[in-house]
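Attaching the record inline, Q. Sequence:
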Amino acid sequence: MSRGRFIFASVVADTAIWFLGMVAAFVLRFGGHLPMFNFRPFLVLSPLLAVVYLTCAWIYGLYEPERLESFWAIVRSVVAAVTLSTLLTLGIVLLVGPAFYSFPRLVIGIAWPMQLIVLVGWRLAALRFTPIRWPEQRVLIVGAGPLSRELAEELGKREKWGYRVVGMVARDEDFAAAYPADADIPLLGIVHDLTHLVTELDIDRVIVASPVALRELVEDITLNSSHDVRVDVIPELYEIFIGTVDAIIADIPLMEITHRAHRGAYPVAKRALDVALSLLMLVVLSPVMLVFALFILVTMGAPVLLRQERLGRDTKPFTLVKFRSMVKDAEKLCGPVLACDDDPRITPLGGFMRKYRIDELPQLINILRGEMSFVGPRPERAFFVERFLQEIPGYRERYRMKPGVTGLAQISGSYATTAQRKLKYDLIYLYHQNLLMDVQILFDTVRVVLTGRGAR
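Structure, as predicted:
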């Protein structure tokens, strides 16, 4: 069973066991009967109470199978989760009011040991008879000292989690010469060879156990490698002061420095926000859009909308829609040209729309289609993308995410700032994005729109 399926099955099984445990407790409490007068309040509250239990189970790591290595680890987590959810259930039943007083408190107490036994039992059986198949992680360790070898040994003990230590690279030639000839893990080269080794050996994860020129190392791996690579470091005290530990192997802390925040529930929440907000804005702003469509038609003639092919996530093309802000056939003679300050092709009305970002409003349609998000890097045309991919190191990184109507680059710089500067903001967003950051960018965008200026 894959890790994802195990987690899904765990949630479903836990929900069923929790519910059946409560039903069994009712039956025991009332001597084999199930009086609806007492059972109905539970049925009304059961969706909320089930969510409470699942949240407690998540808090104590029951949906992180790597934390449940032993019998006692499972018992500790289940006991903690069930006990906390039982206390919270009692509190909820006491607070909801007289309409639920017929829900016997004793039932909650009877359910506690029953749920404990079954939840522990099914997990032990599942891990024994349906072992999890972890996705393989091909690991390359930077460093060849005792700490690196200890880390390799600990990862080797956890091969069932998918770890495969391919080899090590030394800091330089001197460190390579001191590497034991009889070591179990091969020494594949030095740091200078790292980018080549990552691509050639199809490495998924690089762990830096030796203090090296970290900035250059990370830039080389993440910006020049042809595939997605996670980079972790064994942090020094300074790095712990400015970051957080993301994983622990035995007692060795690891800090992920190529962190991408688009995991778990975040993509779902972001898409839900995109759909809800775009529908609301289309309804509220439709009169404004209609007025500007008429202005464009009267002052600039048809067409009102500009349809242009842009590149989205994974450089897939899509048709972007926006209000036309330039003269008709603006690129007929000069070809594709990026907008700049005082661009003569932009009409007076177009300049006003660009200043207040009104020309972007039709892109709400692109958001509903799922081609764009509210927040992300601005989509560019293939003509410019091909050039930037050749000229700007790491430019391909921005296509790991869906493009946006607004973004960190748009609220932090001018409309016509350079592609190199925009890329830095796009990468900041890529590696640190979360829902709170998205909301902050949207609020800053409103300020930019209302004031007609970029962020200082």
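The chain has 16 helices and eleven strands. The first strand starts at residue 137 and ends at 142.

More tomorrow.
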